């Protein structure tokens, strides 16, 4: 839960600012117990149905999380969680107020793109995603496209700002960074907002015997098997520098897994993180465990009963690490 001002002042020669873990979380002991044709448009909306959830049909199987109404609602809730974390800000990059062209990669329900467009009426905002789950009634300066960020980018314009959030095994991050660099205007910014796995704990209250500990390591194992490891985000700053970005910064926040911290803001973040996790844990897990690890759906559901219990347990002081990494294309 680092505040933006708590970025370490120590910088490398390339200008990367070292990340900080921020304020140490203190437990609240008082409650410790407690762009396509019509035919293509029709086909991409014929979603894959699997274990009671729907998944994108365009580039079927590339992204392991659902795209149904339950997941859309969770994505909107997650957007609120990011807003709480950043004190109402949509991003940290020092972009120009009159930015003209903005790209939101993996836009999901499009809420970030819509809010950015409302706040920046001079900007033209494009949101891309594998699923057309965005609303129909939009600000005039927003367009949504069904697109695969892993394919070569063919945008006619270059962008002042490119934003990504929670792409979770959907992209090859280094390739995305290279494509972003090529598609930014000189001086433009890329900002990637991403949680990393495994879930962490600083005081030993989460042990290897806990289901939530096992779950987070199973998720990491599955992601590594498909070559898109969920522990990559802490490496983003180094990777951005490696492909040519300058003024790279890495800001670290923490989301408590439930309202266990004593601090009021952290407790609120914990409450929203718990709701987000309880609503999303089945969607996060089912395809990764069944497609990649070979579990049966019934095994997954049984296992998640104990995972949910651990997520609610205030005596387990676990948290999710949030990485916000930004870099600038050289002038």
What can you see in these coordinates?
- The chain is of the alpha/beta class.
- The protein has one domain: Rossmann fold, CATH 3.40.50.150.
- Helix content is 34%, strand content 21%.
- The chain has 8 helices and 9 strands.
- The protein has helices at residues 38-44, 69-85, 111-119, 173-183, 211-225, 236-243, 264-292, 297-312, and strands at residues 48-50, 53-55, 101-105, 124-129, 142-146, 159-165, 184-201, 246-256, 318-328.
- The strands form 2 sheets. The chain has a 7-stranded mixed sheet with strand order 5-4-3-6-7-9-8. Strands 1-2 form a two-stranded antiparallel sheet.
- Strand 3 (101-105), helix 3 (111-119) and strand 4 (124-129) form a beta-alpha-beta unit.
- The relative contact order is 0.18.
Summary tags:
SAM-dependent_MTases_sf; Rossmann fold; two-stranded antiparallel ribbon; globular; methyltransferase; alpha/beta; methyltransferase activity; transferase; 331 residues; S-adenosyl-L-methionine-dependent methyltransferase; seven-stranded mixed β-sheet; 8 helices
Shape by Cα distribution? globular
Order of helices and strands: HEEHEHEEEHEHHEHHE
How much helical structure, as a percent, in the residues?
25-40%
Task: Supply the number of helical segments.
Answer: 8
Number of strand elements: 9
> What is the averaged pLDDT score?
85
Examine the coordinates and then state which fold CATH places here, giving the name of the CATH topology: Rossmann fold
Question: Helix/strand/pairing class, anyone?
Answer: alpha/beta
The fraction of residues in strands falls at 15-25%
- How do the strands of the widest beta sheet line up side by side? 5-4-3-6-7-9-8
């Amino acid at each position: 839960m680092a505040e933006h001002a708590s970025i370490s002042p120590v910088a490398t020669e390339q200008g990367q600012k070292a990340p900080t873990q921020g304020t140490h979380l203190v437990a609240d002991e008082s409650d410790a117990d407690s762009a396509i044709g019509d035919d293509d448009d029709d086909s991409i909306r014929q979603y894959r149905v699997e274990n009671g959830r729907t998944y994108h049909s365009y580039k079927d199987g590339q992204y392991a999380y659902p795209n149904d109404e339950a997941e859309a609602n969770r994505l909107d809730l997650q957007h609120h969680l990011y807003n709480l974390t950043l004190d109402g800000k949509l991003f940290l990059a020092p972009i120009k107020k009159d930015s003209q062209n903005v790209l939101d990669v993996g836009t999901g329900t499009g809420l970030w793109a819509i809010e950015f467009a409302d706040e920046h009426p001079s900007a033209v905002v494009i949101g891309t995603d594998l699923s057309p789950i965005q609303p129909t009634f939009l600000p005039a300066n927003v367009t949504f496209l069904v697109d695969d960020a892993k394919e070569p980018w063919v945008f006619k314009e270059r962008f002042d700002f490119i934003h990504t959030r929670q792409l979770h095994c959907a992209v090859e991050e280094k390739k995305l960074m290279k494509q972003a660099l090529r598609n930014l205007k000189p001086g433009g910014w890329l900002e990637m907002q991403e949680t990393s796995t495994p879930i962490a704990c600083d005081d030993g209250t989460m042990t290897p015997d806990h289901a939530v500990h096992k779950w987070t390591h199973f998720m990491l194992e599955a992601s590594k098997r498909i070559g898109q490891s969920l522990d990559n985000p802490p490496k983003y700053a180094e990777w951005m520098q490696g492909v040519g970005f300058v003024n790279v910064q890495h800001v670290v926040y923490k989301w408590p897994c439930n309202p266990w911290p004593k601090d009021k803001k952290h407790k609120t973040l914990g409450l929203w993180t718990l709701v987000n996790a309880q609503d999303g844990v089945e969607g996060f897990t089912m395809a990764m465990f069944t497609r990649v690890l070979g579990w049966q759906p019934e095994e997954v559901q049984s296992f998640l009963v104990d995972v949910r219990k651990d997520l609610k347990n205030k005596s387990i002081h676990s948290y999710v690490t949030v990485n916000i990494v930004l870099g600038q294309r050289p002038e």
